[in-house]
């Protein structure tokens, strides 16, 4: 892998942002850039790995030469199985291994966090679909307890499950508190700020991250007319 230097994230929010950016890069490699990714995984080449970087770029490269490596390494030799499997099955296999790698990197950085911080980190991560779910187009299963709360869909704007819409303040009685609890650990994909029920939020249909409406310049009125929202990052990648 080419030598790329990044500062190590230390807080829950920094580690989560690092995870989300690496994940966004891998989502792009396995979906929008899939033909390019597929061609780079030539079985005739040496052992290759798929890397996602914190700057949201992806790379197919040889593994790190350092022993032990600076960070946990992705699955080795993903290119060797490419031509021996159906394309979709191979991509799903790469996605599963990439999910494992993303978690290992996040918890490598999180090893010095305390128990509550690690729990909060995993809670943030678990809000996102896995790469396997994205690639296989399998909808993530939600706990019945989360489905029963229903406050997100009932109190959101017309964008339904795709927006953490502005709730009518205090008019829903107890459901107001439930909404706060349900999304209290959601972070804005742009500024990293925590969820607040008094603010309008919108979810990207591509990378599954959530954003303050003000951070991506989307108002509740504008969201009404959007059928599929793409955040600025995903929109710029799509147009390349």
Automatic annotation (TrEMBL):
Q: What Gene3D superfamilies would the database entry show? A: Zinc/RING finger domain, C3HC4 (zinc finger)
- Gene Ontology annotations of biological process type: chromatin organization; regulation of DNA-templated transcription
Q: List the taxonomic lineage.
A: Eukaryota, Viridiplantae, Streptophyta, Embryophyta, Tracheophyta
Q: Which residue ranges are recorded for the region named Disordered?
A: 136-178
Ranges of compositional bias, category Basic and acidic residues: 136-146
Cited function? Histone-binding component that specifically recognizes H3 tails trimethylated on 'Lys-4' (H3K4me3), which mark transcription start sites of virtually all active genes.
The molecule here is called: PHD finger protein ALFIN-LIKE
**One of the record's GO cellular component terms:** nucleus
Its domain comment says: The PHD-type zinc finger mediates the binding to H3K4me3.
| Main location group | nucleus
Q: Which residues form the PHD-type domain?
A: 185-237
Task: State its location(s).
Answer: Nucleus
Q: Name one GO molecular function term.
A: transcription cis-regulatory region binding
Could you tell me which species this protein originates from? Answer: Trapa natans
Source taxon at top rank: Eukaryota
Subunit notes for this chain?
Interacts with H3K4me3 and to a lesser extent with H3K4me2.
User: Which protein family is it in?
Assistant: Belongs to the Alfin family.
The UniProt keyword set, sorted, is: Chromatin regulator, Metal-binding, Nucleus, Transcription, Transcription regulation, Zinc, Zinc-finger
Q: Known InterPro entries for this protein?
A: Alfin, Alfin_N, PHD_AL_plant, Zinc_finger_PHD-type_CS, Znf_FYVE_PHD, Znf_PHD, Znf_PHD-finger, Znf_RING/FYVE/PHD
Is Transcription regulation one of the keywords UniProt gives this record?
yes
